[in-house]
Amino acid sequence: MSAALQLHPEMSDAEWQTRCDLAALYHVVHHLGWTDLINTHMTARIPGEPNHFLINNYGEMFDETTASSLVKMHLDGAVLSPGGAFNAAGFTIHSGVYKARPDANCVLHTHTRAGAGVSLLRRGLRPISQDSLHVIDDVVYHEYGVPASEEECEALGRSCAAGTCVVLLNHGLLTLGETIHGALMRLYMLERACELELLARQMDEPPVVIDLSVQRKAAERMRKLRPAPEYGLSEWKGLVRTVERKGADFRR
What percent of the chain has pLDDT over 90? Predict the structure, then answer.
């Protein structure tokens, strides 16, 4: 038994590993500059416990997050980590997705400038970049609702049933995936697509739209690739090595 599990004998190996991976994700998001102080959130469902997920301890900066500081919650809102604090809007968002998508094991939500900028447009993303072709066939636009309400929880669940890359109108971005690295890869490509979309909208001429036949072939390829266990795995391993080289201490 590892030293960490000796300190937490009630915890399964699977939960501890998920905690380490999710804590690493917070440090990766900090490294990528996708933070909004303490006001966005990433979660992971605990393997073997479909009604339980982990979320950041509200008030910590992302580069302060550790495996032990993550808060364990039930989908009904019960907090299972003594003294743990959580963002109410965060619980609404993540519980709504997990209830609607049993296949989702990770949900990421950000307020980046590019993502929030595209969220101000009714159907903001266009098939104008190689990056957009990674996600555009799976993009869903979700109407802005009342934060932290049961109605919003249910509405978000309905939106996420239609896709894994969500533009939360007037708000930001959200992705979900079967794995942490898969959800992160979706978010990276969605963020890139939003950045290029905003750049294109500042130019004095219309962008080149990718041929429809190419769009269709790209969509077919991505529908096979995104659910695969290896989707985003190499990129994930590289990013974890990067934050560790920078001194990230999250496995505690």
Answer: 92
